[in-house]
Structures are given as structure tokens and as C-alpha cells.
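Async update (no meeting this week)

Hi team, since we skipped the sync, here's where things stand on the single-chain job. The sequence we agreed to prioritize is pasted below, unchanged from the tracker. I ran it this morning and attached the output directly underneath so nobody has to dig for it. Comments welcome in thread, and please keep replies under the output.
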Amino acid sequence: DESLKEKLKKFRFRKETNNFIVYSYKYIHADGRVSYPLCFIFSSPMGCKPEQQMMYAGSKNRLVQAAELTKVFETRNADDLTEEWLKNQLAFFR
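Output:
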């Protein structure tokens, strides 16, 4: 659906809100292999309420374990969430 694609392109997280993201990404390795890692990204920007940070941090580990996610990344700045950032994070797992 084209309207959904347009909405997703324009979507932005609120700057001072914690977020969990589970994202399947097409990753092309240096040797040409293609994989589709399921990435868990936790965004906890500066300026979030401390009680909200504690709530999200406490539930993060349970969620990661229950979903059996192995690619877990964190950022303090939602503006860092770019494709380049994700590629750099995934490069560690070769």
C-alpha cells in the first residue's frame, strides 16, 4: 500500500521518549552473503523521565529473552538511527 509506505517514510520518534524497535534488515556481508538479522534496538534519549527509563530498562531484558533476540543495540540519540549506524552495529557479528 503506497500510502502506508509514505507514512513510514515520514515517521519520526519523539525525541524524549523511550522506544523499542524490532527490525528485520537485509544485510549484505562483505563476502556477498545475504542475511536477514532480527535486530532489537532500544532508544533511550537524554531528557526522558527517570521513571520511564527504569520501566523500559527493566522490561527490555525480559523482552529480549522471551523473543530470543541476539542482535541487541542501544542508542541515546534517536537521530543516530540511520542505515549506516545499523550496518556498523551489525559488522561486529560478521
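Quick observations from my side:
Residues 45 and 76 are 4 Å apart (CA to CA).
Helices lie at 2-10, 50-67, 83-91.
Reply here if anything looks off.
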